[in-house]
Amino acid sequence: MKLFHRLRPLVLGCLLPAAAALASLPAAAETIVMASTTSTEQSGLFAHLLPAFKKASGIDIKVVAQGTGQALDTGRRGDADVLFVHDQAAEEKFIAEGYGVKRYPVMYNDFVLIGPAADPAGVKGKDIVQALKKLSAANAEFISRGDKSGTHSAELRYWKEAGLDDKKGSGYRACGCGMGPALNMASSTGAYVLSDRGTWLSFKNRGKLAVLVEGDERLFNQYGVMVVNPAKHPHVKAAAAQKFVDWVISPAGQQTIASYKIDGQQLFFPNAKP
Fold first, then answer.
1. How far, in Å, CA of 167 to CA of 127, rounded?
2. I need a labelling partner for 136 at 20 to 30 A (CA). Which of 2, 116, 149, 236 fits?
3. Strand pairing partners for 194?
């Protein structure tokens, strides 16, 4: 006992500075999960956008990049706190079903039809519907995402408008993959493929591919952001997720989106509504 009393000041002298040092350490950053389309990840936008948000808020975001349909299903299961996707009809259905709090438009770009620069099917131009008719007639090689993504949904709309839901030609292939892998497949096989412009601009393995169809107003590609409804999933970090939404539609977030460029070309165009 006497030994303990003699050692006590020494023990306290060691423990108190250690405790003070621990108390001075910064608290671990809060982390939320965002389910998002592959185009926002593979285009490099999030590597540019999310560090700016963390600097402004102290909040980390873990991104689960998947097709928009899969991202919405992730939200329905409560496995994400916020969604950043691009299929407006599906997003509005998600909100109507009560899985999301509110949908906010945040930015846009466009889809483009990519294909061999030699364009053996002769699709080059502005009209996406006429281009698909030519691809079908020529049985041209076409790589579809086939993954219920926003890009895949848009592609299916265009085939429907062309009256070719079930007549896409013998060269039609669904890869069930993200935008980057689909572009790689098209590059290696000389196939046609529908892509969002952002991923195309950041794509390095272009080979002999080129943009063949662009400028059709039907190729407009709107992105939206939504907080998953905590009334459906009480564990959702709704307050932190809303901070991201509020920031990304604010002037600071919108300017950060606009400032992301590759080789001087802007990939996404902010259009949040105040």
1. 18
2. 149
3. 113
Residue 74 exposure: Cα atoms within 13 Å on the Cβ side: 25
Return the residue matching tokens 């039907």.
218
Assign residue 169 the CATH number of its domain: 3.40.190.10
The pLDDT-based confidence of 18 (bands split at 50, 70, 90) is very low
Strands 265-266, 261-262: pairing is antiparallel
Nearest-angstrom CA–CA distance, 68 and 63: 13
Tell me: do 127 and 212 sit in the same domain. yes
pLDDT tens digits for range 20-58: 544 444 456 799 999 999 889 989 999 999 999 999 999
Q: Which residues have a Cβ under 8 Å from the Cβ of 267 and sit 6 or more positions away?
A: 43, 44, 45, 109, 197, 198, 201, 202, 260, 261
pLDDT in tens, 245-269: 999 999 999 999 999 999 999 999 9
* 232: CB partners within 8 A, 6+ apart: 78, 98, 99
